[in-house]
Amino acid sequence: MATVTFRDETATGKPLSEWEVTGLPERMTVRQLIRLRVREEVARHNARPSNRFNGLVRPDDAETDLNGYRLREPRRIDWERQAEIAERAFLTNGFFILAGDRQAESLDEVVDLAADPDLIFIRLVALVGG
Length: 130
Hints:
Blueprint: E1 2-9, E2 15-24, E3 27-29, H1 30-47, E4 52-53, E5 62-65, E6 68-71, H2 79-91, E7 95-99, E8 102-103, E9 110-112, E10 118-123
Parallel strand pairs: 1-10
Antiparallel strand pairs: 1-2, 3-9, 4-6, 5-6, 7-8, 7-10
């Protein structure tokens, strides 16, 4: 079983957040890892719903806020819907994932978590006026 560190960084390498998940298989697809990450962050939010969500992708009906998303009112979030949004964002370069020293390129790519237990998620932000 593997322990994986999920880390968010800016495009310049500045760390934003980090947490570990233990007891994972040694090999998982990028799709499985994205879904796992989203399920974990939504579970943390749903345990104490608030009007802020700090996650990989923006929930429906939320506004982008500094380092997260603002919900109109505190509510529970559907992790499966968030996972769908995250998969689409990955496919359209909304974020990318580094596993070890390489960039994951497809949802079906298998990551060897024993060799690369640190996964870095880098969200890409659209430039204003560009």
